[in-house]
Amino acid sequence: NLCIYSCVRSAAYSTMSEDKRKPFTVFVEGNIGSGKTTFLKHFEQCPNTYIAAEPVEQWRDLKGHNLLELMYKDPSRWGLTFQTMVQKTMLDVHVQKCDEPIKLMERSIHSARHIFVENLFQQKIMSAPEYAVLDSWFEWISSNCDIHGDLIVYLKTSPEVVYERMKARARQEEHTVSLEYLEKLHVLHENWLIHKTIPGAALPPIVVVDANQNLDLMAPEFKRCQNLIFSHLK
Ligand code: DGT
Question: What is the ipTM of this complex?
């Protein structure tokens, strides 16, 4: 039924005028190692769905420079440079033309701003002038570009669980990432998506998924989100 419904929806979508072609946009958010990639993989088989992976490879190789590595090695020197690149590449993903009625994004420009930039500033790793420059770009982008989301799927984890996962996957750049860092990112995610304490951050509806359990066992949870996302299609 879902499949027939999506085909009808897709046919209707393709006859819409260009300016009405706004896909139902979902941001998949959560701590490092929370399972965002696994979640998106689940949707690869779904019809009418465009999956936008996070542009990590662009951060690892910008004309031969590994900005992700530089940021982890010396965040006070490279934090602004890295976040500038993140903001630019995430904006690219937000405004990318999408011919499908559903668009799933791994993270968003919003988490870059409200989680990572915020953390660098709060920890006094990023200076106030650097923070102000990034923030003024973020404000300009918010007013002039469509970075709106219709739903956030929050893969909620405990820092200890993602710390173990991150160590197990052993991504080269992340070997210096501490449990303490993951705890700070966790608190920022909770403040943003659960306690909703960030002033001015307009939030779409949020689905919270318990992502602490083994990712292989999460198919039913992913299915629940899939049904919910498809049910939002008008
Ligand atoms: P997953 O599939 O949930 O395990 O997700 P990951 O860990 O592959 O992807 P993600 O987005 O949590 O992060 C990839 C790496 O990039 C990770 O080392 C954190 C880092 N990262 C992502 N976005 C930002 C950002 O805006 N600022 C900073 N400082 N780091 C970021």
Answer: 0.91
Structure letter (DSSP) for residue 150: S
SS3 percent helix, strand, coil of the chain, rounded to 5, is 60, 10, 30
107 Cβ closer than 6 Å to some ligand 1 atom? yes
54 touches ligand 1 (CB under 6 Å)? yes
Q: Are 78 and 104 in contact (CB under 8 A)?
A: no
- Cβ pair 199, 44 in contact under 8 A: no
**Catalytic residue from among 106, 118, 130, 221:** 106
Length of the chain: 234
Which of 83-87, 152-156, 166-170 bottoms out in mean pLDDT, i.e. has the lowest?
166-170
Q: Is the CB of 87 under 6 A from ligand 1?
A: no
DSSP 170: T
Gap from CA of 32 to ligand 1 centroid (Å): 5
Query: Which percentage of the chain shows pLDDT scores above 70?
Result: 91
